[in-house]
Amino acid sequence: MPAHSFSPVAGFYDALARFVFGRQLQEAQAANLNYMADNSRLLIIGGGSGWILQQVLTKIRHSSIVYLEASGSMLRKSEKRNKHNLLTNTVEYRLGTEADIYPYEQYDIIIANFFLDLFSQSYLEPIAEKLYSALAPGGKWLITDFVRPVSNLLPAWRAFILYKSMYLFFRVTCGISATTLPNWENNLKPYPLEKINSTYFYHGLVKSIAFRNAVA
Fold it and tell me: For residue 87, which of 44, 49, 56 has the smallest C-alpha distance?
């Protein structure tokens, strides 16, 4: 798998996202958290500085969470941000990538927000396979990510410029493998995933989906 890290932008990533998108990215990530349940095993992969973990910790109890992040700086920010929010939950802060999901681990909930869009199409197949293999039967996979425009709410040229700028910036600063937005939804089609909710945000450029693993 390609190596990338958001450590170079850890100090200003959240501020940059708010400047460009307002609160839309946060609203999108929170859209399907109602599908979580207490007493669950959760994996949050690529959670950045910990905002999504903060939301998760306020909504569930008696759960075990693995927070898997490739950036040491982001991991430390997340741990500092949430050190007083644990209540009855436990969190393991694990530095690494999808390769650091142990073969025996099975999760009731997997949250992968703005993660799949980081990889070129050739890398997405093994990544999707790795994540699906860690999803327990009947488990929920919550994904929020950028997608190609699906409406006329935002002119195609504006979407093109936005994505071109984003991918150039993060490829140079963080070493992501993608140079353009991959069609990550296609990589999920081979798996028995039942879509239970889907919502668009930011002029149809951000999609939040909740899947259920149909394997019982």
Answer: 56
Q: State the Cα–Cα distance between residues 168 and 109, nearest whole angstrom.
A: 32
pLDDT mean by block of 10 residues, the chain; 216 residues:
64 75 90 96 94 95 96 92 89 95 96 93 92 98 90 72 84 82 93 96 92 91
Cα 134 to Cα 105, 130, 189: the distances in Å are 6, 7, 17
Helix, strand, coil % in the chain, rounded to nearest 5: 40, 25, 35
The position carrying tokens 């009947």 is 138
Quick one: which H or E segment has residue 6? none
Neighbours of 174 (CB within 10 A): 18
Count Cβ atoms within 10 A of the Cβ of residue 50 and give its class: 0-12 exposed, 13-18 middle, 19 or more buried.
buried
Sign of the dihedral defined by the CA atoms of residues 91, 92, 97, 101, in that order: negative
Q: Taking the mean position of all CA atoms in its chain, how far away is CA 123?
A: 16
Q: Which CATH class, in words, describes the domain spanning 7-213? A: alpha beta
Residue among 170, 167, 179, 77 nearest 122 (CA): 179
Query: How many whole angstroms separate alpha carbon 13 and alpha carbon 16?
Result: 5
